[in-house]
UniProtKB/TrEMBL annotation:
Database matches in InterPro entries: Antitoxin_Phd/YefM (IPR006442), YefM-like_sf (IPR036165)
Listed SUPFAM superfamilies: YefM-like
A matching Pfam family: PhdYeFM_antitox
Family, similarity comment: Belongs to the phD/YefM antitoxin family.
Role of this protein: Antitoxin component of a type II toxin-antitoxin (TA) system.
Protein name: Antitoxin
Amino acid sequence: MKTMTAREAKTHFGELLDTMRREPVLVTKNNRPVGIMISIEDAADTLIPEMFMQKEPGYEEWFQAKVGRALEAFKEGTTKVAQHEEVMSRVWERVQRKVKPTSA
C-alpha cells in the first residue's frame, strides 16, 4: 500500500487519483494515519455500501452506546490501543470472511 502525506495528496491530487485506482493509498498527517483512499470499484467490494443501507430501528443508539463503552474502557485502562497494522489486518480478515464465507 502506498503512503502519502496529506500535503502530498493535496499537491499531487492527480497522482493520488491515479494511484488509488491501482492500490489503496494511506494518507497521513503529522506522521499518523488519517485515512485510506480507494477506488470506487474497490469500495463496491467492501463493507462501505452497507453504511448507506437502511438501518434497523435502534441501530444508532446501539452504535453510540458501543462507542461510548469503548471510550470508557480506554479511559479506565481496561483496554489497549492496537497498532494500526494489527487493526487493519483484523479488518481485512473480517472483510475476506464476509466476501468468501468459509464452508463448514
